[in-house]
TrEMBL record:
Its EC number is 1.1.1.22. Keywords: NAD, Oxidoreductase. This is UDP-glucose 6-dehydrogenase. It is an enzyme of class 1 (oxidoreductase). Residues 311-412 form the UDP-glucose/GDP-mannose dehydrogenase C-terminal domain. GO terms for molecular function: oxidoreductase activity. InterPro entries: 6-PGluconate_DH-like_C_sf, NAD(P)-bd_dom_sf, UDP-Glc/GDP-Man, UDP-Glc/GDP-Man_DH_C, UDP-Glc/GDP-Man_DH_C_sf, UDP-Glc/GDP-Man_DH_dimer, UDP-Glc/GDP-Man_DH_N, UDPglc_DH_bac. Pathway: Nucleotide-sugar biosynthesis; UDP-alpha-D-glucuronate biosynthesis; UDP-alpha-D-glucuronate from UDP-alpha-D-glucose: step 1/1. Belongs to the UDP-glucose/GDP-mannose dehydrogenase family. It catalyses: UDP-alpha-D-glucose + 2 NAD(+) + H2O = UDP-alpha-D-glucuronate + 2 NADH + 3 H(+). Pfam families: UDPG_MGDP_dh, UDPG_MGDP_dh_C, UDPG_MGDP_dh_N.
Length: 431
């Protein structure tokens, strides 16, 4: 097939590279010319394990092309797939400017009928609105399809290749057949449905995951108070197939470009439609409280943060990504600084310079530099590098052997052998 993907973010790039690897001819359009040049030189705008090699190989073998030339890029394609960003906009609703710019350009430059799949996360009703717009006053037919994406950053290629399901919202049999053929290599159930349901599935899935995290964090906080161990509790409840073991890891609260934004969007959708969505509003509030809980633990252990030196290990919203959008580290560092603390932070991938424009902290070159002279260390991201730290060295470098571990990286018994006052999540003090 000849496929055109608009948008070279992590969804667009992963989809383009995998489709090309399956033997399709793929053109990926990115309107930022500098970004196109960088991608062609092998410098990808996203940090995704395995992606640079996949892109490089398919570019070299001539199946994958990047261009900023929209007018030519969209011609004579079997499928146009839109994968541009829909960042948070006003009042919780996503900002659809980039999406509509693409749709308008499609209508303006189309020289034939085309199939248009929307992969970006869009509010319910968007496919309908796009289809009406594209098909009004034109000699061509635009067959619009909703193909929501369920990739996670950091494991995007593996997620793409072995999804739990595909969801396709379409109106015509020809679209159904083309997408069935495209996704043939994937052995998974396919839910063919209408546009609105497909769009809702994407939001409903992310909001369910967000709810599951606020749920397990609340149970973990209770465990700390009543002497239960969250690892045992999560195992015991996760084995019930109605609940499932995934997304039961307690932590510092969820972040990233999707879960917070999509939960806010569902809240906004409920408010606009007179539906009680207080459950999801509470999920967001609890998530913020979970970020703040880290700071409260620090304050409690240190008797206040004024003049204290705090090492922050991990800034990215989770491991294996450099993304700090809505990362718990942002709220946590701001609060520590507000309370008079000084932060020295280390992250193996996050863009430190960009972060320093937003936050007041001193960057460190490695975890050991970060903990040197620190009154406490806080673990906010589950980077593998932290699991393997030389704990003896960490303890010796610190001013005070206190670790608030928001990701439960270490065994409490081991930490006490090294003489740490170790505060994990959901594990009682005596464990
Ligand atoms: C999420 C969804 O998992 C994907 O299915 C979806 O495609 C994507 O959003 C999207 O809409 O594009 P992602 O944001 O990459 O993917 O990250 P997740 O792996 O879902 O993690 C989200 C947050 O939840 C992270 O901050 C993570 O640390 C936290 N988390 C996750 C927990 O605190 N506990 C868990 O058990 C799992």
């Amino acid at each position: 097939m000849r496929i055109c993907i608009v948008g070279a973010g992590y969804v667009g790039l992963v989809s383009a590279a995998v489709f090309a690897d399956w033997g399709h001819h793929v053109v990926c359009i990115e309107n930022d010319l500098q970004k196109v040049t960088r991608i062609q030189e092998g410098d990808l705008p996203v940090f995704e394990p395995g992606l640079p090699n996949l892109v490089k190989r398919n570019v070299q073998e001539g199946r994958l092309l990047f261009t900023a030339d929209f007018t030519h890029g969209i011609q004579e394609q079997d499928l146009i797939m839109i994968a541009v960003g829909t960042p948070p906009g006003d009042n919780g609703h996503p900002n659809l400017t980039a999406l509509w710019n693409v749709v308008k350009a499609l209508k303006e430059y189309a020289r034939s009928s085309m199939m248009v799949a929307i992969k970006s996360t869009v509010p319910i009703g968007t496919c309908d609105a796009v289809s009406r717009y594209l098909n009004a006053d034109t000699e061509f037919r635009f067959d619009v399809v909703s193909t929501p994406e369920f990739l996670r950053q950091g494991t995007a290629i593996a997620d793409f290749l072995s999804p739990d399901r595909m969801v396709i919202g379409c109106r015509t049999d020809s679209a159904k057949q083309i997408l069935k053929k495209l996704f043939e290599p994937l052995e998974c159930p396919v839910v063919f449905t209408d546009w609105q349901s497909a769009e809702m599935i994407k939001y409903a899935a992310n909001v369910f995951l967000a709810t599951k995290i606020s749920y397990i964090n609340t149970i973990a906080n209770l465990c700390e108070e009543v002497g239960a161990n969250i690892h045992q509790v999560a195992l015991g409840i996760g084995l019930d197939h109605r609940i499932g073991p995934a997304f039961l890891k307690p932590g510092v609260g969820f972040g990233g470009s999707c879960l917070p934004k999509d939960t806010q969007a569902i809240v906004a959708l409920g408010e606009a439609n007179g539906v009680d969505v207080s459950l999801f509003r509470e999920v967001l509030r609890l998530n913020h409280e979970q970020h703040m809980r880290v700071v409260k633990k620090l304050e409690k252990c240190l008797g206040g943060l004024e003049g204290k030196k705090i090492a922050v290990l991990g800034l990215a919203f989770k491991a294996n990504t450099n993304d700090v959008r809505e990362a718990p580290s942002l709220a946590i560092i701001s609060r520590i600084v507000e309370l008079g603390g000084q932060v020295i932070a280390y992250d193996p991938a996050a863009d430190m310079e960009a972060l320093r424009r937003l936050l007041d902290f001193i960057p460190a070159a490695d975890p050991y530099e970060a903990v040197t002279g620190a009154d406490a260390a806080v673990v906010l991201t589950e980077w593998e590098e932290f699991y393997g730290m030389d704990l003896q060295r960490v303890g010796d470098l610190m001013n005070n052997r206190l670790i608030i571990d928001g990701r439960n990286l270490f065994a409490p018994q081991v930490m006490s052998q090294y003489g740490f006052h170790y505060v994990p999540v959901g594990i009682p003090k005596q464990a």
